[in-house]
């Protein structure tokens, strides 16, 4: 079985003092999270779309799903976790409790604040996860990447031709992801900013899926202006 996992468990602190987490802000007359869910909703490969949000926003999210999407049976809204990867683990726990978690269970995990993901990117994630067990959506780095150990002096300037920027979806064999995550130390979990690194730390291959420059993550107020422009372009 293949599940869409929409990660909306964050509070959007870098968006500044807004009355609600950024995934619920409106862009192009609809909440960002609805734009994102719609991109998965049109793909028939998913058994279920699992949307995970902060506990105090679950009923709000359920109301949004009811308002904007017809077939509510395809979507379940549950509570996210204390970290992005704990949110993913909550989605796997839901699958274990309501379906079967086995070697054929695939999850396509996606940031709820990346509303411009495309059907092709999602399809490629499904295909690669089925074939290889783990994949990460990326784009080639456009800026030169600089590494510093002390935020003061350059430690290295890696070869840009080998550098990529991670996006989402990140898609996995769910059972393998859960087993490897549970085998990590607390220190290893602390440094994670995504899920693909769980495989990488354990020396397991993660295949690259070609992303799109416009598959942005809405993080700062500036990104909202970019998103409005992109939405205008979609019309
Ligand atoms: N415990 C968490 C933390 C983050 N996310 C999700 O992971 C995605 C990308 O993370 P990020 O952009 O960092 O979102 P926030 O954590 O909400 O933002 P900030 O770091 O500015 O607070 C978002 O869709 C966010 O909702 C999640 O599902 N569960
Ligand atoms: O740094 P942030 O916590 O905003 O992002 C966490 C993840 O969403 C991010 O690592 C993936 O989108 C891949 O870039």
Automatic annotation (TrEMBL):
Record-linked Pfam families: IspD (PF01128)
HAMAP family: TarI (MF_02068)
Marked site positions, Transition state stabilizer: 14, 22
Keywords: Cell wall biogenesis/degradation, Nucleotidyltransferase, Teichoic acid biosynthesis, Transferase
GO biological process terms held by the UniProt record: cell wall organization; isoprenoid biosynthetic process; teichoic acid biosynthetic process
UniProt entry tagged with the keyword Plastid: no
Site (Positions ribitol 5-phosphate for the nucleophilic attack): 160, 217
One Gene Ontology MF term: 2-C-methyl-D-erythritol 4-phosphate cytidylyltransferase activity
Keyword Ribosomal protein: no
Role, per record: Catalyzes the transfer of the cytidylyl group of CTP to D-ribitol 5-phosphate.
Organism per entry: Velocimicrobium porci
Name of the featured protein: Ribitol-5-phosphate cytidylyltransferase
Enzyme class per UniProt: transferase
Catalytic activity: D-ribitol 5-phosphate + CTP + H(+) = CDP-L-ribitol + diphosphate
Enzyme nomenclature, EC number: 2.7.7.40
Annotated family: Belongs to the IspD/TarI cytidylyltransferase family. TarI subfamily.
Residues the record lists as binding CTP: 7-10, 81-87, 112
PROSITE patterns noted in UniProt: ISPD
Tree of life domain: Bacteria
């Amino acid at each position: 079985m293949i599940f869409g996992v929409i990660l909306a468990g964050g509070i959007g602190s870098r968006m500044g003092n807004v009355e609600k987490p950024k995934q619920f802000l409106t862009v192009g007359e609809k909440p960002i999270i609805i734009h994102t869910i719609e991109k998965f909703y049109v793909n028939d490969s998913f058994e279920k779309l699992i949307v995970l949000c902060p506990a105090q926003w679950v009923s709000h999210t359920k109301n949004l799903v009811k308002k904007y999407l017809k077939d509510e049976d395809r979507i379940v809204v549950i509570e996210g976790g204390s970290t992005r990867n704990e949110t993913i683990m909550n989605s796997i726990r839901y699958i274990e409790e309501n379906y079967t978690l086995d070697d054929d269970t695939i999850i396509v995990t996606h940031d709820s604040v990346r509303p411009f993901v495309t059907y092709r990117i999602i399809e490629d994630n499904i295909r690669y996860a089925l074939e290889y067990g783990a994949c990460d959506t990326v784009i080639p780095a456009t800026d030169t990447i600089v590494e510093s150990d002390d935020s003061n002096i350059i430690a290295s300037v890696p070869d840009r031709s080998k550098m990529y920027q991670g996006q989402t979806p990140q898609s996995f064999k769910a059972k393998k992801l859960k087993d490897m995550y549970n085998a990590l130390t607390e220190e290893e979990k602390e440094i994670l900013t995504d899920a693909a690194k769980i495989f990488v730390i354990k020396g397991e291959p993660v295949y690259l899926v070609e992303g799109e420059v416009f598959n942005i993550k809405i993080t700062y107020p500036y990104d909202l202006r970019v998103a409005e422009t992109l939405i205008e372009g979609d019309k």
